[in-house]
Specification:
This protein is an alpha/beta fold and 448 residues long. It is built from 14 helices and eight strands. It folds into two domains: 331 residues, 3-Layer(aba) Sandwich (Rossmann fold), CATH 3.40.50; 46 residues, no CATH class. Bound molecules: thiamine diphosphate and magnesium ion. It is an enzyme of class 1 (oxidoreductase).
Length: 448
């Protein structure tokens, strides 16, 4: 029988792979204590000075890590001695359009869930700048691992409205063939791994993928260098997976940019109850990772930090970088949540009024003469029309064949899965009034 049980995966080149691994790891060197030295030479802390003062390090006496920003909430450039523009006007207009698309689509799909058209949805309100700004700094070859509030990353990388709608309606054009709940997008074409609901699992996977890229570059130095970008919320950073992932990436020198969206909440748990340290950024430093905190409502700051992080991640044979992007989750956590049960309505209203990544870039563009009220209303109308068109087209499409339920786990359908398929067909044939499968491509025949 053909080997049917091997899942698809990364193939390690045994002959050159191990040699590359050895070359990648630093040479072992002996650590000894020189007589009279004022520094500790324990293997676990080689640069620590001896002291006769007994000092417990107090987090509160360390300065809080600053937040990098390029423009303020009125769209004014803070340091006007330099131009924040690291891209042509046309590209900036494209980021703006992508943020707007996410925002308009979010509103429509939130309502679509309320109308019972789709089962679930999550919006990115307030966090569009982190997604679009960081994605604008990556190359299309870079590999992305996302959580679920990075719709803007997909939009910026070229996921179309049809792609979004096909996944949301789980129709036959969905690359995941309808097997995931809504917003769990993925795209092999765009090098974005499929989103998984299980929090933080993407973080060690990202470190592993970055290690694979490092090996690939060692084996074939002529291919363009790539990094992994890994997104997660500050809540996900409470999982053990986060810590394991940062440590392995630091010790093995993996070219991965960890992008934490700190939006103040993990569903109903505010950050004040999630941790006592200085956000997530302080944890990067703890793992020996170069780290920056940025204003997530400032698309220029996010983009600049990610561009720099990408360069740094490829230095010295590869290393991880952590970006903590600060924002506020303006929306409810998901369509299954009512956030006014645990936070004040005025707090949300205040954030909506005070600051937002979309209105901030809009203000900057208006000051530059790139945008105006009329362009805004035309763009919104057009995007809305396109979203509604794709929504109704996707809703009318057939669902994937029932057979797809059993495919793609193993290279070939296993005898057990074949038996289940047969049983499913028997049930549908026996109770046709209970199971209307005409909406699925090929109907019951796909199970033959
Ligand atoms: C392992 C695991 N535990 C719990 C959950 C339930 N859960 C889903 S989202 C979420 C909050 C995550 O917060 P954060 O990472 O800050 O992301 P945000 O929703 O704020 O964007 C929780 C607890 C889950 N999906 N997986
Ligand atoms: Mg959060």
């Amino acid at each position: 029988m053909k080997a049917t049980r091997r899942p698809h995966g990364f193939r390690f080149n045994v002959s050159t792979g191990y040699a590359a691994c050895r070359a990648a790891s630093k040479r072992w060197s002996s650590i000894s204590q020189r007589p009279g030295s004022d520094h500790v030479h324990f293997p676990g802390a080689v640069n620590s000075k001896f002291t006769s003062e007994m000092i417990f390090q107090r987090p509160s006496t360390h300065p809080t890590i600053p937040t990098y920003r390029v423009m303020d909430s009125d769209g004014n450039v803070v340091d006007n001695t330099r131009d924040p523009q690291s891209a042509p006007d046309s590209e900036i207009l494209n980021w703006y359009r992508n943020m707007l698309t996410v925002s308009v689509m979010d509103r429509i799909m939130y309502d679509a869930q309320r109308q019972g058209r789709i089962s679930f949805y999550m919006v990115s309100a307030g966090e569009e700048g982190i997604a679009v700004g960081s994605a604008s700094a990556l190359t299309s070859d870079d590999v992305v691992f996302a959580q679920y509030r990075e719709t803007g990353v997909f939009a910026q990388r070229g996921f179309t409205l049809k792609d979004f709608m096909s996944q949301l309606f789980a129709n036959k054009n969905d690359a995941g063939r309808g097997r995931n709940m809504p917003v769990h997008y993925g795209s092999a074409k765009l090098n974005i791994h499929t989103i998984s609901s299980t929090l933080a699992t993407q973080i060690p996977q990202a470190s592993g993928a970055a290690y694979a890229l490092k090996m690939q570059a060692l084996q074939n130095p002529n291919i363009p260098q790539r990094v992994v970008a890994c997104y997660f919320g500050e809540g996900a950073a409470s999982e053990g997976d986060f810590h394991a992932a940062l440590n392995i990436a630091a010790t093995r020198g993996c070219p991965v940019i960890f992008i934490c969206r700190n939006n103040g909440f993990a569903i109903s748990t505010p950050t004040l109850e999630q941790y006592r340290g200085d956000g997530i950024a302080s944890r990067g430093i703890g793992y020996g990772i170069d780290t920056i905190r940025v204003d997530g409502n400032d698309i220029f700051a996010v983009r600049e930090a990610t561009l720099a992080a990408r360069n740094m991640a490829l230095q010295d044979g590869g290393r991880p970088i952590l970006i903590e992007a600060m924002s506020y989750r303006v929306s409810h956590h998901s369509t299954s949540d009512d956030s006014f049960a645990y936070r004040a309505r005025v707090e949300v209203e205040e954030w909506k009024r005070r600051d937002n990544p979309i209105s901030r870039l809009r203000k900057w563009m208006e000051k530059k003469g790139l945008w105006n009220e009329q362009m805004e209303s035309e763009a919104r109308t057009e995007i809305r029309k396109q979203v509604l068109q794709e929504l109704s087209a996707a809703q009318k499409e057939k669902k994937p064949p029932l057979r797809a339920l059993f495919e793609d786990v193993y290279e070939e359908i296993t005898p057990e899965a074949a038996a289940q398929m047969k049983e499913l067909k028997r049930m549908i044939d026996t109770y046709p009034d209970e199971y209307d499968v005409s909406g699925f491509e090929g109907g019951v025949k796909s199970l033959e």
